[in-house]
Write a structure and sequence with these properties.
- The chain is mainly alpha-helical and 277 residues long.
- The chain folds into three domains: 107 residues, P-loop containing nucleotide triphosphate hydrolases (Rossmann fold); 80 residues, Helicase, Ruva Protein, domain 3, CATH 1.10.8; 74 residues, Winged helix-like DNA-binding domain superfamily/Winged helix DNA-binding domain (Arc Repressor Mutant, subunit A, Orthogonal Bundle), CATH 1.10.10.
- The protein contains 13 helices and six strands.
- A hairpin with an 8-residue loop joins strand 5 and strand 6.
- The radius of gyration is 23 Å and the shape is globular.
- 21% of the residues are buried.
Length: 277
Amino acid sequence: MRQEANVNGVYVNCWESHTLHFIMEKIVTDLRLLHTAQSSTTYKLMKFQRHIQSEPFIIVLDEIDKPEPKERNTILYALSTLGKVGLLCISNDKLAFYTLEERVKSRLNPVQVEFHPYTKADLLEIISQRADLSLTPGTWSRQLLEKIVNLSGGDARVAIQTLKDAANDAQINRDKVIAESHIRNGWKNAQNWKRTYLLETLTPDHRLLYNLVKDNPGIVSGSLWQTYMLQTKEKGGEPIAVRTFSKYVSRLRDLGLIRVEPARVKEGNVRKFYVIE
């Protein structure tokens, strides 16, 4: 936007800044607007509005589905009243917008753009371009790229990383062509890379829950909650609420980091958890 239209902007990850206060703290810090400590959100909003004046400005709110519904409404309403401020909201959950209050919807009047998952043909085209640009002719075949696509599960990052690691594996072993064995090794490395990347984007509580499931395969929901509470208190931390706990577990499942199975018990909605290797 700066290069093409001379419009400035700022990026906010709402997993890290999940309230209006923290979002404004991120914005004024990135723009270096405050020289003294000011805790008032109203003051930050005023300072930001004076800074942009009548100039257009873009605020990217990534993972806008992270804030609780009430806080999400507060965030979007407050930011939509700041003159020529455009909001680019990114969410994995459509309900994040369907559940907005009417006053927020009318203020935003949002245009929704849905990004569908890559098809196998899309992924094949993407990694074919990467192979053409990066690899020596004759060291790879379309058939091998199709195998990478089938292994990637529709994730372009996994497909590209698999191709990269497979090529590195072949080169280290002084092989003249990329073989299926290299692809299998590359895919394993890509899976580990993806898991590490996803965990780094989450909160310490997410990572603790993941590690508890990893260390206790098949742990049931009640035991997971009790173990989480115990370890958090032992470390001097503040445990999350039960509702947030359920949301965090669902997030780990949606990201493909853990799988959830119903436990065979007579009473109650009990679930068992396993990490996905």
